[in-house]
Amino acid sequence: MADDKSNRGPQDRSRISLSEDYEVRYWTEKFGVSKAELEAAVKKAGPSADAVEKELKKR
Questions:
Q1: For 3-46, how does the pLDDT look when each residue is reduced to its tens digit (9 = 90+)?
Q2: Does residue 14 belong to any structural domain of this protein?
Q3: Does a structural domain hold residue 3?
C-alpha cells in the first residue's frame, strides 16, 4: 500500500509503507509478525509485499 489513500489499485496493495500506522497493523496481522519483525523484513527485502512475505517465511 502506498501513501495515496485514494489510489488503492494493484500496485498499492503490493507495497508496504511503514510510515502509515494502518498499514503496519494490516501487514503485521496478515503475516502474523510483530512490528519489529515486519520492519526488519522490509529493511532487508524492500517494500514489496511478496518479497517481505518470502523473507518472513525464511525465519
A1: 556 555 445 679 999 999 999 999 999 999 999 999 999 999 99
A2: yes
A3: no
